[in-house]
Amino acid sequence: MTRAISLHDVSKAYTRDIRVVDRLSLDIAPGEFLVLLGPSGCGKSTVLRMIAGLEDIDEGRLFLDGEYGNELPPSDRDMAMVFQNFALYPSMTSRDNIGFPLRIESPGADPAPRVDATARMLGIEDLLDRFPAQLSGGERQRVAMGRAIARHPSAFLMDEPLSNLDAKLRNRLRAEISQLTRELGVTTVYVTHDQSEAMSLGDRVAVLRGGVLQQVGTPRTVYALPSNVFVAAFIGTPRINLLRGLVRAPLDGAMTISLGKQFLRLPEPLSLDHQLLRVQQGREVIVGLRSEAVRIAKPSAARTGEVALTGLVEHLEFQGHEVLVHFNTGSRPAVVPDLEAPRPRPERPARRRRREGTVLHRLRERAGALRAGPVATLDRSEQPAPASAEPRVPGDLIVRTTPDIRLRHGMQVPLLVDLAHLFVFDQQGERICPNPARLPDLEE
């Protein structure tokens, strides 16, 4: 038996002024593998604990298979949780750790058959008589997963179960978790801050920032059509190139996006998405380009929809199967504030002495101030960044290319930008191109 989970406007606050989770609404279908993704401290684990019943829900409603579940005790929710720190009893063998919840649920029954079956499924039969101190990190995590699987729960709740493991073992267990959950067909909610895990495991990915849901969709949709600049920057390796641009749309000339010393000339006739950029005439925007949207080639090799730029090689990252080239194009990078922070730190407006508007208007303003705030802010000041700021990454444009292309530091290289993969975000970070109201069919 698997379970449908629904969250309707769920909120949680530990202090009076800060909501850890803010009006989250999310529907998880029976048998679905949903990943909660976001920077550390954004509220992912709190959502998981509210589903499990380990945290009270301050506002909103939780439904389990369509039934109200806010007050349902954890023991009656039929869910199994896998923790980041394994949470094994050190004085028990692996066999006893896996069988412990079975003995609690059915004191008179023999847990041995289900323990043995679970051990065979996970390939840990030879570890059953060992204590946790005699196991490696990966073996402990398998035992912790076995304890959850042996119960035959209606839902798995996994709170960053692989974050304490090394990269090679993490990749191996990631594949095992994916295979196991699909074989069992159990609803799974998986929490992680690792976007690679989220993209490879989830049927859908829900991105959180500051306790607010930013976007939920399939991994392909979230990557190809991010709803805002935060989602675009958080998902993808290497990180998307974000540049400050200025839209110029003269009535008697070609429409361009100035990037500083160079510009992107939009091909005519303008596509519908590019026509919508006319309303941004004279405004600063954020231009997003994935590393695969730019290739190294001469202008004479341009395909339909490609425009030329030039870049100066500043840094090369050899990855074996590919090379990441950092170019200086004379553009100004756009910075997404607090991208890796748990929640944004918006500037507090000066307190007004005279109250304006109705009581309802003031309450709405206060409610808005407690939410996650704008996704991005274009700082107009040209003052140098403080010493505590994140170190500058070489170049302003990262391009993925093959290792057979010979480049060297300081070389000037021709580039072609595919405008079909151009993202444009407004000054608050919301996507305006491609048009959010008209999403293309990604399956074509």
Care to describe what's here?
This protein has 444 residues and is an alpha+beta fold. It folds into two domains: 5-230, Rossmann fold; 233-342 and 394-433, OB fold (Dihydrolipoamide Acetyltransferase, E2P), CATH 2.40.50. The protein has ten helices and 21 strands. The chain has helices at 44-52, 94-105, 112-122, 137-150, 167-184, 195-201, 219-224, 229-234, 272-275, 359-369, and strands spanning 5-13, 19-28, 33-37, 59-64, 67-68, 79-82, 155-159, 187-192, 204-209, 212-217, 241-248, 256-258, 263-265, 284-289, 294-296, 306-318, 323-328, 397-401, 412-418, 422-425, 431-433. The strands form four sheets. Strands 6-7-8-3-9-10 form a six-stranded mixed sheet, with helices on both faces. α2 packs parallel to α4. It is elongated. The two termini are 35 Å apart. The model is unreliable at 346-356, 364-370 and 379-391 (pLDDT under 50).
Summarize the structure in short.
The chain is of the alpha+beta class and 444 residues long.
Kindly estimate the percentage of residues that lie in beta strands according to DSSP: 25-35%
Overall CATH architecture of the largest domain: 3-Layer(aba) Sandwich
Kindly state the number of beta strands: 21
The count of domains is 2
**CATH class assignment of the largest domain:** Alpha Beta
Quick one: overall form?
elongated
SSE blueprint and pairings:
Elements: E1 5-13, E2 19-28, E3 33-37, H1 44-52, E4 59-64, E5 67-68, E6 79-82, H2 94-105, H3 112-122, H4 137-150, E7 155-159, H5 167-184, E8 187-192, H6 195-201, E9 204-209, E10 212-217, H7 219-224, H8 229-234, E11 241-248, E12 256-258, E13 263-265, H9 272-275, E14 284-289, E15 294-296, E16 306-318, E17 323-328, H10 359-369, E18 397-401, E19 412-418, E20 422-425, E21 431-433
Parallel strand pairs: 3-8, 3-9, 6-7, 7-8
Antiparallel strand pairs: 1-2, 1-4, 4-5, 9-10, 11-12, 11-14, 12-13, 14-20, 15-19, 16-17, 16-19, 17-18, 20-21
